[in-house]
Amino acid sequence: MKFEDFQKDLRKLKKDLRACEVEVGKVYQVPSKEHIQPFKENMEQFIIQAKIDQKAEENSLTETHKCFLETTAYFFMRPKIGEKEVSPNVFFGIWHEFSSDFKDFWKKENKLILQER
């Protein structure tokens, strides 16, 4: 999981949405106007909502990336040599390891406490 992959996917989604708009525009130019209205109304609503959703996802990814960088800075994590930033995989891998170890020790301590009682 990399932020660059998410950004690439969002760019592809935006490109596909533009292609969809072009195709819809071609349908509007068809000489038969009798069947255009339900299609046109629905597609205009879809495209407007899709643009809003796509922009919201871009903003959400930007905000998430910013928060992630702030979090890694708070914990004084530095990127590996040759990398420009700490990857989520590395960061959460460390947390997963810590959580697993903590859980194991917690269980052992609970067993000891129960045995002492």
- Our estimate of the beta-strand percent is under 5%
| Average of pLDDT | 90
> What is the ordering of alpha helices and beta strands?
HHH
Show unreliable segments.
Answer: none
Tell me about the largest β-sheet. Answer: none
Domain count = 1
The whole-angstrom Rg is 25 Å
Number of helical segments with 4 or more residues: 3
Cα distance, first to last residue?
Answer: 46 Å
User: Helix coverage percent of residues?
Assistant: over 70%
What is the global morphology?
elongated
Structural class: mainly alpha
Compute the number of strand runs.
0
What's this entry about, in short?
This protein is mainly alpha-helical and 117 residues long. It is built from 3 helices and no strands. It has one domain.
State the main characteristics.
single chain; 117 residues; mainly alpha; elongated
Explain this structure.
The structure is a single chain. Helix content is 80%, strand content 0%. It starts with a helix and ends with a helix. With 117 residues, the chain is mainly α. It has one domain. The radius of gyration is 25 Å and the shape is elongated. It has helices at 3-28, 36-74, 88-116. The chain has three helices and no strands. The mean pLDDT is 90. Residues 1-117 form the FH2 domain. It holds the Pfam family FH2. InterPro entries: FH2_Formin (IPR015425), FH2_Formin_sf (IPR042201).
